[in-house]
Amino acid sequence: MATLSCQFHLAIHRLPCNARVRPSFSCSVQPSQSNIKVVINGAAKEIGRAAVIAVTKARGMEVAGAVDSYCVGEDIGKVCDMEEPLEIPIVNDLTMVLGSISQSKETGVVVDFTKPSAVYDNVKQATAFGLRSVVYVPRITVDTISALSAFCEKASMGCLVAPTLSIGSILLQQAAISASFHYNNVEIVESRAHATDLPSPDAIQIANNLSNLGQIYNREDLSTDVSARGQVLGQDGVRVHSMVLPGLPSSTTVYFSGPGEVYTIKHDITDVQCLMPGLLLAIRKVARLKHLVYGLEKFL
């Protein structure tokens, strides 16, 4: 795609009194910066479909491939209920998609929504074809992240591992860290519609952030013998209570208390669309990285 650049010139010289001044107008065609080619790995999932729509609407990027083991052969635009097909079939072979993009010599990013056991191999494949990676897969182990970091450093290729893509969730975590310096009592209460992965990655991340500050919380109630008091994460007394009821929004609330007051921070997620601004930011940022970065908050 090219852009049209035009310039208007007005030149005035010593001319007779009855002479006219004639402006000159010139145009030139200049190449524009190409879009980032985005491959969605896990495209048939709910978050994958939302990502396809978000990338398609975003400026400076385009969907270049859709990978999943479901709906193979179907047009990803139709799977996402878009008005027009994208003429991009879903395939179950990541290598085939990477090969076609690498031949174009354009900037490419693979967005990984798969599973923890597949992340390392997926990032290695993307790197081998010259593509960066954005990884949003819960429950990735510390060992996997360390191995990916060493691999990306050696290959000088960017990778962003995001425990969350929700900007609101990141802001809640940052506010909780700030509050922890002023309060000695804290508990986390979360609600989910389905009983999977509890405590949630968000709650674990908040508890880990607070535990890394070297403070012991809830000193007057450190006992872990009563199950109804919630699960204590780490050694610093941060408790997490998980409530599961169909129809509940995905909600995380952090309660702090001090003498005579309670300070509450709450974040609700009602739709997967809340993750899309963070995803688009991650795609734009990782395109310039040459190493692994853990956490989208590094770019806020």
TrEMBL record:
Instruction: Identify the residues that the record assigns to the Dihydrodipicolinate reductase N-terminal domain, covering every copy.
Output: 36-163
Give yes or no: UniProt keyword Magnesium. no
Matches recorded under InterPro entries: DapB_C (IPR022663), DapB_N (IPR000846), DHDPR_bac (IPR023940), NAD(P)-bd_dom_sf (IPR036291)
Q: Look up keyword NADP and say if it applies.
A: yes
Keyword field? Amino-acid biosynthesis, Diaminopimelate biosynthesis, Lysine biosynthesis, NAD, NADP, Oxidoreductase
Q: Which residues does the UniProt record annotate as the domain Dihydrodipicolinate reductase C-terminal?
A: 170-300
Bilayer-spanning residue ranges: none
Q: Among the entry's GO cellular component annotations, what is one?
A: chloroplast stroma
GO MF annotations, alphabetized = 4-hydroxy-tetrahydrodipicolinate reductase
Name a single GO biological process: diaminopimelate biosynthetic process
**Family that this chain belongs to:** Belongs to the DapB family.
Identify this protein by name.
Dihydrodipicolinate reductase N-terminal domain-containing protein
